[in-house]
Amino acid sequence: MCTRDSNIWRSSCPIICFYAVEFHFVDRVARQFGKRQGIPTEETKSVITSLHRYSRRNNRDISDWVAKHQTWIAMWNQKETLIDVENRLHNDSAYQKYLVWYVERCRLKLKPGWTKEEWSELV
C-alpha cells in the first residue's frame, strides 16, 4: 500500500477550500484498506451538519473566511495528531453490523442488472 502523505489521508480532519469545508472521515473508507468498517458516531453527524450550512450564497456578509473557519484551520494544522490508528482487520461479523446500520439510514438505489449493450459501452 502507498504510504506517501499518509499523515494527510489517514487524518480525520477538515479539508478547506476557501469558504467550503468538508470533513475527511477516515473510518468511512476503512474497508477499502482491509480495516474494520466502524459505525459512525453521532459526533460525525453533528460535524457534517454544522459544516454544510456554510456557503457563499447563505453567508454573503462574511468577508473574512479565515476568521470564520479558524477552528477548522487549527484542526488542519494539527492533522499529524489526528491520524487514525485503527488496526483491527476486517471481519464479516463487524461488516454485517455496519451494513445493517447503513441500510437503516441511507437511501439505496440498486440497478437490477446490466444489459449487454451497457457492458459493451464499458469495454
Overall average residue pLDDT: 78
Radius of gyration: 19 Å
Order of helices and strands: HEEHHHHH
Strand content: 5-15%
Describe this structure in words.
The chain is mainly alpha-helical and 123 residues long. The chain has one domain. It contains six helices and two strands, in the order αββααααα. The chain has helices at residues 6-9, 42-51, 65-68, 70-77, 92-105, 116-122; strands at residues 13-17, 20-24. It has a two-stranded antiparallel sheet. Strand 1 and strand 2 (20-24) form a beta hairpin. The longest helix is centred in the C-terminal third of the chain and has 14 residues, at 92-105. The protein is extended, with a radius of gyration of 19 Å. This is Aminotransferase-like plant mobile domain-containing protein. Pfam families: PMD. It comes from Hordeum vulgare subsp. vulgare (Domesticated barley).
Summed up, what is this model?
With 123 residues, this protein is mainly α. It has helices spanning 6-9, 42-51, 65-68, 70-77, 92-105, 116-122, and strands at residues 13-17, 20-24.
Topology:
Blueprint: H1 6-9, E1 13-17, E2 20-24, H2 42-51, H3 65-68, H4 70-77, H5 92-105, H6 116-122
Antiparallel strand pairs: 1-2
Pfam family, one: PMD
GO biological process, one term: meristem maintenance
Organism: Hordeum vulgare subsp. vulgare (Domesticated barley)
List keywords for this structure.
single chain; 123 residues; mainly alpha; two-stranded antiparallel ribbon; 2 strands; 38% helix; 8% strand; extended; Aminotransferase-like plant mobile domain-containing protein; AminoTfrase-like_pln_mobile; MAIN-like
